[in-house]
Automatic annotation (TrEMBL):
Sorted UniProt keywords: Antibiotic resistance, Membrane, Transmembrane, Transmembrane helix, Transport
Domain of life assignment: Bacteria
Annotated TM spans: 40-59, 71-92, 104-123, 129-151, 187-212, 224-242, 248-273, 285-310, 356-381, 387-409, 430-448, 487-506
Organismal lineage: Bacteria, Bacillati, Actinomycetota, Actinomycetes, Kitasatosporales
Primary subcellular site in the record, as a coarse category: membrane
Membrane topology listed for this record: Multi-pass membrane protein
Annotated GO biological process: response to antibiotic
InterPro entries assigned to the protein according to its UniProt record, in alphabetical order: MFS, MFS_dom, MFS_trans_sf
Record-level Gene Ontology MF annotations: transmembrane transporter activity
Domain Major facilitator superfamily (MFS) profile: 28-511
Pfam families: MFS_1 (PF07690)
Name under which the protein is recorded: Drug resistance transporter, EmrB/QacA subfamily
Gene3D superfamilies in the cross-refs: MFS general substrate transporter like domains (1.20.1250.20), Multidrug resistance protein D (1.20.1720.10)
Taxonomic source organism: Streptomyces yunnanensis
Length: 523
């Protein structure tokens, strides 16, 4: 069965092999350009991830902007990029297989830049949502192509290092995104943050036109029905979660959304198990390291992006931090993950990956529980310790889970392993934001003073209205927010804990001595 690969290293870059590259190549790149290509690809990854992380810092300013988004619309503004990204990641990788990675990368950067421009010029929430969806499409086109093009010019013995550098670029982009958003929002309004990525995308696209090598085109088929079913299932599920509080959990629209999610999901499974060329060969998930790895990565990012969504709001509304202070305040977490992650493989080799994953997931849950206790009186150093605990857990758990996915598959399907890992991250991120956004909004509005709740369209509106009631009113609204935040973190902790226990039970077979791995043997 042919499996679409989202990041398969192209086999046709070497002219000595006599393969025909796509049109537009100027021949094999020279040594200087060959060395610059991975750095260019990593720069594109950094730009994508910087926008993803930085938009969370813009939530407080967006909430009080002239667009007047509701609390529910704010969740959609953050989540819709992740939804489109996750749903189209695998088919976008397959498109690169057929058309060549270079044109898909250039097109993706152009689409991403156009989406950012649309966001910057958005006159209302619907246009902003469309712009965010377009950036998600661009990101889905860019990410698989960057890894494939990096590997295309990297000698076989150095590909592990290239993959590590590419993975590190995702974390670096997150940290730089917080700094960029914080410093930009300190002096300018939120549209400027989106506008900054327009020239960046144009520059990267121009450099890619000049330097990126053309890759062999692989004949293949698009699984359009599978893509539609996957995106439909994700959209319906998130609609039910996000809109449930506002429309009513028992409303016809919400119940229909959950029913549609279940139906689309079931049809997606049936389709992928019966199609000749499925979007994803779901039989691969029967391998414990693959199935548990995908679930574990998704679970870890449920907690991480739930935190990202709330962090800026807590530091702004409860602690009174400025935008740039908020951007700096989250840096210890990113730095901690950068320090811990490289050591997780060594620890897994010594203790076993299951123990390292268990320790990491336990720390993620513990960090969420500790963060749920934060109030406006909590000193930053205490809050930072909680962030470091959670970051240590992420740094320990995610590398063994991710590497386990790829290692359990044949080398010919390493691209699919990368795609599954990336899709799990984005789906988990979208789910975490939807869950915590729904819980916090419902709890916050329910515990506001009556005089404030009547006019509370969003958190920003509530805080402004509470300020008109004097210090007591503002204190009551702040307390309502931190209480709601605590409930949101506890909900995330329970969800991550359930996922972690499932993963650990599932992975028990993956490390049992004497269990053959037919998939690795087939490589």
């Amino acid at each position: 069965m042919t499996v679409h690969s989202a990041a398969r290293p192209p086999a046709g870059n070497d002219p000595a092999r006599g393969r025909r590259p796509s049109p537009g190549t100027g021949g094999s790149p020279g040594p200087a350009v060959r060395g610059a290509i991975p750095r260019l690809m990593n720069a594109a990854v950094i730009a994508i991830q910087a926008m993803v992380s930085g938009v969370n810092l813009a939530v407080p300013q967006l909430s009080g902007s002239g667009l007047h988004p509701s609390a529910t619309q704010l969740v959609w503004i953050v989540d819709i990029h992740l939804l489109v990204f996750a749903g189209l990641l695998v088919p976008a990788g397959a498109l690169g297989d057929r058309l060549g990675r270079k044109p898909v990368l250039i097109a993706g950067l152009a689409v991403f830049g156009a989406g950012c421009l649309g966001c910057a010029l958005a006159p209302d929430v619907p246009v902003l949502l469309v712009g965010r969806a377009v950036t998600g499409l661009g990101a889905a086109l860019v990410m698989p192509a960057t890894l494939a093009l990096s590997l295309a010019v990297t000698p076989p013995g150095e590909r592990g290092r290239a993959v590590g550098a590419w993975s590190g670029a995702t974390g670096l982009g997150g940290m730089l995104g917080n700094l960029l958003a914080g410093s930009t929002l300190q002096f300018f309004s939120w549209p400027v943050f989106f506008a900054l990525f327009v020239p960046v995308a144009a520059l990267l696209a121009g450099l890619a036109c000049r330097w990126a090598p053309a890759t062999e085109r692989h004949a293949g088929r698009s699984d359009v029905p599978g893509t539609v079913l996957l995106v439909g299932a994700l959209t319906a599920m998130l609609f039910g979660l996000i809109e449930g509080r506002e429309l009513g959990w028992a409303s016809a629209s919400v119940l229909a959304a959950f029913a549609a999610a279940a139906a689309f999901g079931a049809l997606f499974v049936v389709h992928c198990l019966s199609a000749d060329h499925p979007l994803i060969d779901l039989r691969l998930l029967a391998e414990p390291a693959v199935g548990a790895g995908v679930l574990g990565v998704a679970g870890a990012f449920v907690g991480m992006f739930g935190l990202f969504f709330l962090n800026a709001q807590y530091l702004h509304y409860a602690k009174g931090f400025s935008a740039i202070e908020t951007g700096l305040a989250i840096l210890p977490q990113g730095l901690c993950m950068k320090v811990v992650s490289p050591h997780s493989a060594r620890l897994a080799g010594r203790w076993g990956s299951r123990r390292v994953v268990a320790t990491g997931m336990a720390l993620v849950v513990a960090g969420l529980v500790l963060l749920s206790l934060a109030t406006s009186a909590t000193p930053y150093w205490r809050y930072a310790i909680d962030l470091l605990i959670m970051a240590t857990g992420m740094g320990l758990a995610t590398p063994p889970l991710s590497s386990g996915i790829v290692a359990a598959l044949p080398r010919t399907q390493s691209g699919l392993g990368s795609a599954l890992n990336s899709a799990a991250r984005e789906i988990g991120s979208a789910l975490g934001i939807a869950v915590v956004g729904t819980v916090v909004t419902a709890r916050f509005l329910a515990h506001l003073p009556p005089a404030v709740a009547a006019s509370a369209h969003s958190t920003s509106d509530a805080m402004t209205a509470a300020g008109h009631l004097g210090s007591a009113g503002h204190a009551a609204a702040t307390r309502a927010f931190t209480d709601a935040m605590g409930a949101g973190y506890r909900a995330l902790a329970v969800l991550v804990a359930v996922i972690a226990l499932t993963v650990l039970v599932w992975r028990r077979d993956a490390e049992r001595p004497g269990v053959p791995d037919s998939r690795r043997a087939a490589a």
